[in-house]
Amino acid sequence: MGVHVQQKQKQNMSSPQPPAKKPRIEDLPAPTKKLPPETTPFVFFTGFDPAQVQQHIKRLYDLGGEIAENAQKCTHLIANKVTRTVKFLTAMSIVKHIVTPDWLEESWKSQKFVDEQHFMLRDAEAEVLFCFSLEESLRRAHTAPLFKGKYFYITPGICPSLTTMKAIVECAGGKVLGKQPSFRKIMEHKQNKSLPEVILISCENDLHLCREYFLKNIDVHNAEFILTGVLTQTLDYESYKFT
Questions:
Q1: 17 has a pLDDT exceeding 90
Q2: CB-side exposure of 230: number of CA atoms within 13 Å?
Q3: Which domains does the chain have, with CATH numbers?
Q4: What's the predicted TM-score (pTM) here?
């Protein structure tokens, strides 16, 4: 009996401890410096591993910056390259600045937030791939919301998910309809210029839901109308429609 207990104790002593939990953003101490709201950067990070994000957030907090609660409140997006993440594409329509981590590094050295102009993100490879200028896209987004005055109906099987697409559309000033519009409703909006334009977005697996539209020669576009559209801040009615 005694031997059995000793073996059990030995097993307990030698058993590996569970790995320590990774620190979460909410576990980090609150910002140590308080800046006026109008000069406080509200930041999103995208494209970094968790350890890098933790380090960046500590420096951000020390300088008086904050993590944005959502894209609508984001003023600065920090990224190493152009990515088509939810954060990048929602922030694209909202933020004042898209900068590299060097902006935060230089601000840390100066112990104050420095001018963003010298740290604007440049990604020649992505700009060639998607035929756009990030600087020009931001300028357009600041001028007017891309999807302002536009309604979207997005079929349920869309990829990225409907929730993701809805967030991207709404940040760009559009509205996503919860109910599939009839041909009659679409034509009503088309003929009455005081009503919002209705744009239909679908995918290969959902085309059976769009049969009536195709029969009546109503354009249906794939997800790139929104994804590439927001990235380039252009409305391209020809490149992404199903034929």
A1: no
A2: 30
A3: 33-140 (3.40.50.10190), 145-232 (3.40.50.10190)
A4: 0.85
